[in-house]
Amino acid sequence: MKRIFLFIATNLAVMLVLSVTLRILGVDRFLTAQGLNLPMLLAFSAVVGFAGSLISLLMSKPMAKWSTGAQVIDPNAPRSQAEAWLVGTVYQLADRAGIGRPEVAIYEGAPNAFATGAFKNEALVAVSTGLLESMNEEEVTAVLGHEVAHVANGDMVTLALIQGVVNTFVVFLARVVGYVVDRTVLRNDRSENGGGTGIGYFVTVMVCEIVFGVAASVIVAWFSRQREFRADAGSAQLLGSNQPMIRALTRLGGLQAGELPKSFASSGIAGAGGLGALFASHPPIETRIAALQKMVA
After folding, report:
1. How many CB atoms are closer than 10 A to CB 95?
2. Burial, 156: exposed, middle or buried (Cβ in 10 Å; 0-12, 13-18, 19+)?
3. H or E segment to which residue 104 belongs
4. Number of helices (H) and strands (E), helices first, in the chain?
5. N or C end: fewer C-beta atoms under 10 angstroms in the chain?
6. Could you tell me the sign of the dihedral formed by the alpha carbons of 267, 270, 274, 277, in that order?
7. Are 109 and 199 in contact (CB under 8 A)?
């Protein structure tokens, strides 16, 4: 229920912000009697395309805490030696990476970990109880190094911007194709009420947004997989050896990784793989290990 409420609230907030922004900018009237106003359509597409990804990025920390039930550890009053070790290890890695010390949290669940946040110096690193119970300290440290590397590389911001760009092109191209189909194929000419707004336009736009959206998800997934390779290498550099990360991935390969909410699943240490390799947010464990083995130990 918590996730459903959060999903509805987030989408309502996005819709409200979009409606107000589009009205203020005056870019919600790109269909004219003379045809498509392409500059206005591009502006409309950019607002729609970036709004959702940027709002999700800015809300990523509270969303992550709420949806996973992650409990942030008070660095001044850890409740156990394990919590003190976890906070101290993340802080050491953050100092080595040259970023601000992130919040550190633990959540109940199967083995996984994630990092999120809109800013490098105000991030969140969280690990599951399943991961802490399944790995030794060296392996957990390697996983934490992977997540800290995500933060240091600015991966959350990069992926949000990439998502915004592809969303912009999906919205833009879907409406261009919809207009062409409506005016040339269906020969709908409604100049008296502002141009191509027949049923063919709306149906074509919806179909194209689905088709182009699937193609866009392949692009975003490819970038996400590259981030994982970089974060694995970043962990090896922070620890001064590729062996801890290799051992952590080997251990992870024998476990059933826990699923994260889709809004930040790509930030986890492992992913479910999606419908196929093209849509997977994470490369196969064996491929990641092979890439690490090519590094100088």
Report:
1. 12
2. buried
3. strand 103-107
4. 10, 6
5. N
6. positive
7. no
**Burial status of residue 84 (CB atoms within 10 A of its CB: 0-12, 13-18, 19 or more):** middle
Per DSSP, 184 falls in state: I
Helix or strand run (H / E) with residue 144: helix 137-152
Residue 109 near residue 128 (C-beta atoms within 8 A): yes
What pTM was computed for the model? 0.81
* Under 8 Å between Cβ of 189 and 219: no
Q: When comparing pLDDT for 237 and 213, which is higher?
A: 237
pLDDT, position 73: 96
- Mean pLDDT (the chain) is 83
User: Cα dihedral angle (93, 99, 103, 108), rounded to 10 degrees?
Assistant: -50
- Is 223 in a helix, a strand, or coil? helix
Which of 83, 139, 147, 228 is flagged as catalytic? 147
Two structure tokens written together for 197: 């707004």
